[in-house]
Design a protein that fits this description.
alpha+beta; Translation Initiation Factor IF3; 3 domains; 4-stranded mixed β-sheet; elongated
């Protein structure tokens, strides 16, 4: 089935919502054709940001007066669901992805099918593992139903505070252990260097969010965003997501250098504590980035588009 939308005949505030509604109504393999008087490329980036890599984008006409693009929803045994959207609906699924080495925060925009192919996993096995989490009835927060202003405050109070509180101890432990054991275990020196870069990156990143982006997001929700406005909140989000990618890469390198936080048999208590705290820090960082990349940012973009 193909749906055609003539964007030129739709009110400005309804253009993007109309496209997203048509796309969401598609079955796998069906497409929507966007007819416009200019390149609708911004829609491509917004679809990536809010729906993930679950579609193909093909130009049928490329101007200068008429632009037409076919957006086809990918075939998938999981209906094109992204890793991020799966975790958003049920945070318990994050534990499954973590055990399998599937990135659910920075890599949350990939479909389940893509992630399984990259890891060499059978999608049916992963789906079974995800289904088994339904038997876990433990209490979890339904972050997807929270107001974005409340979620922004939660991220600051829960995750930003955790990073700031953990930084002094992690820095002290890392420097101590690398200086005492770095001669026999040179990976500790590399870990200390990368941890320093990671903590510095996160400190700058959190300041930008707290001083600029999060206050703007709150104003968006309260419809008082006329005082200060980005040219496009998507651009600010891209900057934050690039920061997340940098932090995620550094954290991944630390895990690899530490052999998945495995200490030698004769490791001292400081050595063991360092690796324990690093793994705890990584777990918190994954939840932190997931809440921003897969819930807070897409919802904020959607509100601005509909304003």
């Amino acid at each position: 089935m193909n749906i055609k939308i003539d964007v030129t005949k739709i009110m400005p505030r309804r253009k993007h919502p109309a496209i997203f509604e048509a796309f969401d109504a598609l079955s796998a393999g069906d497409s929507v054709i966007i007819h416009n008087d200019h390149d609708p490329k911004p829609v491509y980036y917004q679809l990536i940001g809010t729906r993930g890599h679950c579609f193909t984008w093909s130009y049928l006409s490329s101007g200068p007066e008429v632009w037409e693009v076919e957006v086809r929803k990918n075939e998938s045994t999981h209906n094109g669901a992204t890793i991020g959207s799966i975790v958003t609906k049920d945070i318990r699924k994050a534990e499954v992805f973590k055990k399998l080495g599937i990135d659910f925060c920075c890599g949350g925009k990939k479909t389940l099918e893509q992630a399984c192919k990259e890891k060499g996993l059978e999608e049916s096995d992963v789906l079974l593992a995800l289904e088994n989490t339904n038997n876990n009835t433990g209490n979890t927060h339904d972050f997807d139903k929270w107001k974005i202003s409340f979620l922004a405050d939660y991220i600051i109070n829960q995750h930003h505070t955790y990073v700031r509180d953990s930084t002094p101890l992690l820095s002290e432990l890392s420097m101590k252990v690398s200086s005492m054991h770095g001669d026999k275990n040179p990976e500790l020196i590399n870990i200390n260097e990368k941890l320093g870069l990671l903590l510095k990156e996160l400190a700058t990143h959190m300041k930008k969010e707290e001083a600029i982006l999060f206050p703007y997001i709150k104003k968006l929700e309260d419809n008082i965003c006329n005082e200060v406005k980005f040219n496009n909140i998507q651009e600010a989000v891209w900057v934050m997501e690039r920061d997340h990618d940098v932090a995620g890469d550094l954290m991944r390198e630390i895990r690899e250098l530490s052999n998945n936080y495995t200490t030698p048999v004769n490791a001292c208590n400081s050595y063991k504590l360092l690796y324990y705290k690093l793994e705890e820090f990584e777990n918190d960082l994954h939840r932190h980035v997931h809440l921003e990349n897969n819930i807070l940012f897409p919802k904020s973009i959607e509100i601005e588009n509909n304003a």
